[in-house]
Design brief:
The protein is mainly α. It has one domain. 74% of the residues lie in helices and 0% in strands. α2 packs parallel to α5. The longest helix has 26 residues. It starts with a helix and ends with a helix. The model has no long low-confidence stretch (mean pLDDT 92).
Length: 122
């Protein structure tokens, strides 16, 4: 029951995140990322699991997360150079590290949701 509730929550949340990314310059990437996760969680709600899809998506998302972590104005610089300034102060990405740091944490959350479904299915 708990996993069904979590999957409904993640399905709706990821679909909403995909919607708000429609106006981004890289919307093709982020709408795809969020919708894969949303559909995966939605299907899991009804007992349909696709462990190989979860593993493939998790692998790609974590590789991209590592790239964002070490990129210029990425998460590592946010931690070291910018001393972890707030990334939620405003919805506008007014500083160079904000967007990459938010994207990094989004990928980690998506990977965790898909990993939950992977372990439930196996």
């Amino acid at each position: 029951m708990l996993f069904s509730i979590l999957n409904v929550f993640f399905c709706l949340a990821f679909a909403g995140f995909a919607y708000v990314n429609l106006n981004d310059k890289d919307s093709w990437l982020w709408v795809s990322i969020y919708m894969i996760a949303s559909v995966g969680c939605g299907l899991a709600t009804f007992g349909q699991y696709f462990p190989l899809v979860y593993l493939l998506a998790i692998g790609l998302y974590l590789v991209y997360a590592v790239i964002l972590f070490f990129s210029e104005n990425g998460v590592l610089e946010w931690i070291t150079k910018y001393k972890q300034e707030s990334i939620v102060h405003s919805m506008q990405a007014t500083k160079p590290y904000i967007e990459k740091t938010r994207e990094f944490f989004g990928l980690i959350i998506i990977s965790a949701a898909l990993a939950m479904n992977y372990f439930i299915s196996t």
